[in-house]
Structure formats: structure tokens, C-alpha cells
Amino acid sequence: MLVAGSASPAEAGTGQLLVHLRSLLPGLAGALRQVANVILEDPAWASRATIVELAERSGTSPATVTRFCRTLGVAGYTELRVGIATEIGRADQAGWEVGIGADVLPTDPIDRVLRTLLAVDVQAMHETAAALDLSAVDAVADAVVAARRVDFYAAGGSAAVLEDQQLRMYRIGIATWTWADVHNGLTSAALLGPGDVAIALSHSGRTTETVEMLAEARRHGATTVAITNFSTSPIADVADHLLGTSVRETAFRAGAMSARHSQFLVLDLLYLAVAQRTHERSTEAFARTADAVAAHRTPYEPRARGGSARSADPQRGA
């Protein structure tokens, strides 16, 4: 069930077991998915339950739970329980005010909405950082630096996230384009070749247009990269490198909306890794572009003591 570029709990540390399980969930079916759902619904209970109790609550059998452990990449049920307990303990130690599965309720006052939002986003970024395959980030950064051109593919709201990344890369001298229209994206992908890089963003990993564009780029020999929350999603099948986020949905924010901060964390890391590798060129390009737009910034007028900046200007009316 594991894909290239993803780490098993044994490789990433048992403290990322629930993160890994959520990323695998769309690829699980039948009895295995039943076991996964029971664990994710109440991780604290699962960390204390016997194998028989977990099997009974999930409507399966101890043999199915054992098979589930192998699918998840852990040695056995004891390691599964330890991994769940470790992740819960890590969340408690981090001081998150709301636990796993926290959500915003319709009757919550605005101060609790703020605390919940902060806790959920911070937790997602911590989990994303802990589970991120840094060797894959290094490999992608090397490929981007050496590339003739870099294409970014996404649809809907994900395209806005990638457009920000594309503009930042372009500003430090990387030839980049963002494609949100599938026809234009497929046309561009067909013109890529070995040495070029194609990076696609899809929270679900199941957006047909995004998968098609990345697959077309791969068919022509480009190095392909997928940023997604689910390591067993279709987009992972057409990616040479997988950069994962770890985000859970809330009632008023679908997964793609909840994923923004974690996606920017991954993209920021990639941007800085590229900038490090091209430090002199990036520094010069950044300075030149900043100078080019400097004349379009309104001059700062310090506020006069006892009055506004406007009233301090004798050439302006009261």
C-alpha cells in the first residue's frame, strides 16, 4: 500500500501512525476500512483496547486487525497501540487546546472559534512537518534548479495556492508557469521533456484534470511531483516524488480549505530549498525585481505628533 516517496510508520516513527493512517484511508476498503474508521473515531479508546475489542467494535475479526497492522506497516498489534498512544501523547505535550477531531460548532462564541482554528491549523502543520519526506523535498529542489522549465498544475482553489508559488519561483529566476485550465495544461505538458519538472497540487489526489495534466507531463519524460494529503490517491500513481500534507476536515472547512496552511508550509520549504541552491542568482534577481516595482509604492508619511499625516502637510486642505 505504500508508494514511492512515502514513509511507513516504522521509518517515520510511531508518533506519525495516525497521520499515516489518514493518508492511506481512501485506499482502504471493506473490513480494513472498518478497522481504520473505528481507530480514527476514537484513538484514545483504540490505544487501550485489546485486539479482540477492536475487532468486535469494527465488526471484523482479530485476523483482520492483524492484516490491518501489516497494511499500515507496523509489526503487530502492540506496535499499533503504542503508535496511537505516542501520537496522542505528543499532541497533549504540544499543548493543543482541542484534541483529535476537534471542530467548530454553530453555537461556539468567536473566541472559541479562534482557539479551535489556531489549534487545528497548528496541529496540521506540526503533523505535516513531522511526516514530510525531506529526501523527496531535496530531490525536487535539485530537479527544479536544473530544469529548463517548471509547470504547476491544479484546479479550483488549489490553483490559487500554486500561483503564489509560481510567482515566487519566477521572481528568483526559475522559468515557471501555472496551468488551471486542463486544455492549456495538457498542451503545455505535451511540450515538456526529460529534465523538465511538473508539480501538481490536489488535496484529495483525485481531481481528474490535475491527474491528467501530471500524467501527460510524465508521459513525455518530465520529472513529476504531487502534493497531496493522501498517499494512495490516483495522483500518487503518476508522481515520481510525493510531498504529503496531513490535514483533517472540519464542518465549515472542507479538506482543501483546511489544507492551505500545510500546503504553504510544504511549498515554502521547497521555495527556500531552491533559493539556497541558487543563492547568488536568487539574491540578484530578488533585488532587481524589488527595484523594478519600488516606484509603485506609496511613500511613507510619518504621522505628526498630535495630528494625522494629512493635517501635517501644509499643501493639503484640512
Automatic annotation (TrEMBL):
Residues 140-280 form the SIS domain. SUPFAM superfamilies: Homeodomain-like, SIS domain. Signal peptide: none annotated. Residues 15-91 form the HTH rpiR-type domain. Keywords: DNA-binding, Transcription, Transcription regulation. Gene3D superfamilies: Glucose-6-phosphate isomerase like protein, domain 1 (3.40.50.10490), Winged helix-like DNA-binding domain superfamily/Winged helix DNA-binding domain (1.10.10.10). Transmembrane segments: none annotated. Residues 297-318 are annotated as: Disordered. This is MurR/RpiR family transcriptional regulator. It comes from Pseudonocardia alaniniphila.
